[in-house]
Specification:
By secondary structure, the protein is an alpha/beta fold. The strands form two sheets. The protein has a nine-stranded mixed β-sheet with strand order 5-4-1-8-9-10-11-12-13, sandwiched between helices. A four-stranded mixed β-sheet has the order 3-2-6-7. It is globular, with a radius of gyration of 18 Å. Helix 6 crosses helix 7 and helix 9 packs across helix 10. The protein is about 30% helix and about 20% strand. It is built from ten helices and 13 strands. Its EC number is 2.7.1.-. This is Carbohydrate kinase family protein.
Length: about 325
């Protein structure tokens, strides 16, 4: 194991293009429906595995058919799922996402077993034995808001493990709760709304400075079509988005995290690693679901896409 992704696991059912919800018992014919492993831990794990990074995942799913499906999907892509526990009486978290023609993604969501995941469910050896631990969705995994888990992260970092963190929600109370993890995180990767919400800042540069002051060595704020802001003690750098023909933005944040982590493991400095994250996010945006467009993609190919700075030369939209 090189990476452990730890936190939220979700089954996504996606359909496109959806322009409206049918009235009554009417049926609309669509181009595509997919089921994917998603969530800030599971989605990132699948993306890492698909570009060749050894990865395990830890979290909670139900003792139900959706849990069976989620674990099967993850294992099929090469993720070690031995750290995912089954919770009797709980539903596996799931989302239904009707994807609009412009790539927008309203959702219907059941949080399910993610809310029950706790420190006692973890194998400490998985945490301390990983080169990178990615915390995916600490804003909604309340059972990990635990001094024992913080001590576990501290021990892992003392042993040389890097800790990265991404969030799941855009709910003020939940996002604020994730602040407690910042002293134990090396690189924090929120989106713009989350960064502003957690800090109360009026702009992303101010938000990044406030977040750096709480412990991380790097803060990477994703800005959608505007790319991302990379902030360290040395200053801030804007990493531009790549042009892409956007089909669906589901999982782009998870893909950014996966590309960034892969870049760190490859020995790249933080801004160059962020460019890999940008390239992977653009690739995923070109298809349906959180792992779209990754067939046959290698780290070398991803680096080439990042250097070229374009996914689709005919596209005008940035991602």
């Amino acid at each position: 194991m090189t990476v452990l992704t730890l936190g939220v696991h979700i089954v996504d059912v996606l359909a496109r293009p959806v322009e409206s919800i049918p009235q009554g018992q009417d049926t609309h014919l669509l181009e595509q429906i997919r089921v994917t492993a998603a969530g800030a831990a599971a989605g990132t794990a699948v993306d890492l595995a698909r570009i060749g990074v050894p990865v395990a995942s830890a979290g909670a799913v139900g003792q139900d058919e959706l849990g069976d499906l989620l674990l099967t999907l993850m294992e099929r892509h090469g993720v070690d799922v031995r750290g995912v526990v089954r919770k009797a009486g709980e539903q596996t978290a799931a989302s239904i996402l009707p994807i609009r023609p412009d790539g927008g993604r309203p959702s219907f969501h059941v949080p399910g077993a993610n809310l029950t995941f706790a420190t006692a469910d973890l194998d400490p050896g998985q945490v301390t034995g990983a080169r990178v631990v990615h915390l995916g969705g600490m804003d909604v995994t309340w059972g990990l808001h635990d001094p024992v888990f913080f001590e576990m992260l501290g021990a892992a970092r003392q042993g040389g493990t890097l800790v990265t963190m991404d969030l799941l929600s855009n709910m003020p109370d939940l996002v604020q709760g994730a602040r407690a993890f910042l002293p134990y995180v090396d690189h924090f990767l929120p989106n713009e709304e989350q960064a502003l919400m957690i800090t109360g800042a009026t702009g992303v540069e101010e938000a990044a400075a406030r977040l750096l002051a709480e412990g991380p060595a790097g803060v990477l704020i994703t800005l959608g079509a505007e790319g991302s802001l990379v902030a360290t003690a040395a200053g801030t750098v804007r990493v531009p988005a790549l042009r892409a023909a956007v089909v669906d933005t589901t999982g782009c944040g998870d893909a950014y995290c996966a590309g960034f982590i892969a870049g760190l493991l490859d020995g790249r400095e933080i801004t160059d690693a962020a460019r890999l994250g940008t390239a992977l996010a653009a690739r995923v945006a070109g298809g349906l679901g959180s792992d779209a467009g990754l067939d046959g993609l290698t780290l070398d190919h991803l680096g080439h896409l990042a250097r070229e700075g374009v996914q689709d030369p005919h596209a005008t939209e940035g991602i």
